[in-house]
Amino acid sequence: MAKLVYEVVQHDGGWAYKVGGTFSETFPNHEDALRAAETAAAEQRVAGSTDGIQYEDAEGRWHDELAKGDDRPDTEVSD
Known about the structure:
elongated, alpha+beta, 1 helix
């Protein structure tokens, strides 16, 4: 199972959360960024429905896969 860490950091004159190398929107204060990170982390854990997906890879090839709705990552908020 994958694990995603939502890290609350200072960013662009305010506060944001970061997952991997991607930043959220900027929030005016730490508390708002922390609350948004907690919400986003919780939403990632919610199971969905199993469904077919299609995607194109870097070489331009298309793939069909079955995405299991219960295959959700483990999440953590780092403050």
